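Title: Comparing notes on inverse folding

I've been comparing how different people in this forum approach sequence design from structure. To keep things fair, I'm posting one structure and asking everyone to reply with a full sequence. Here's the target:
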């Protein structure tokens, strides 16, 4: 709850404040009338109004957070935020190309991670598995535009070969 009682020389009353999509919503409910402090039932009524407005803003805030959690972020190079290509070093010392997924799960309420081997599944199936994991944890429907966007962001074989060569040169 973000209803706060303010008692300063300039203002006496309740302030309701919430941030929604980076914008601050702030409203004041005065507990003064004709220069005198309001008490009793009238004060309780004003507090109820402030709490009702806070509940309304809280619903908007929750809705905005859920919507933001389902959004897909694809950068200018076509990469999906949360799905990385990397060379994983196995226990044997061999390097394996994988898609690594690390995201805040809306489903579980915590950060989840997994890797999908490109050598084991092939590029297309590995990308599909990575996207399915991502979509399940972000609660993105397979019939949505966001899901289709994710599938289209699959890197090409040429892109992966460039990345593999670049990573092997750095070592």
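Reply #1:
Here's my take.
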């Amino acid at each position: 709850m973000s209803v706060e009682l303010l008692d300063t020389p300039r203002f006496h009353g309740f302030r309701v404040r919430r941030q929604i999509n980076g914008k601050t919503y702030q409203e004041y409910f005065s507990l003064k009338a004709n220069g005198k402090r309001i008490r009793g039932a009238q004060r309780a009524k004003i507090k109820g109004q402030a709490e009702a407005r806070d509940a309304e803003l809280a619903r908007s805030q929750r809705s905005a957070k859920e919507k933001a959690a389902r959004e897909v972020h694809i950068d200018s190079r076509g990469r999906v935020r949360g799905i990385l290509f990397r060379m994983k070093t196995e226990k044997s010392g061999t390097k394996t190309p994988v898609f690594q997924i690390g995201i805040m799960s809306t489903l579980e309420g915590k950060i989840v991670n997994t890797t999908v081997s490109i050598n084991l599944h092939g590029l297309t199936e590995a990308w599909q598995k990575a996207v399915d994991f991502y979509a399940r944890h972000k609660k993105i429907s397979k019939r949505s535009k966001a899901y289709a966007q994710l599938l289209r962001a699959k890197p090409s074989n040429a892109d992966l070969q460039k990345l593999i060569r670049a990573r092997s040169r750095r070592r």
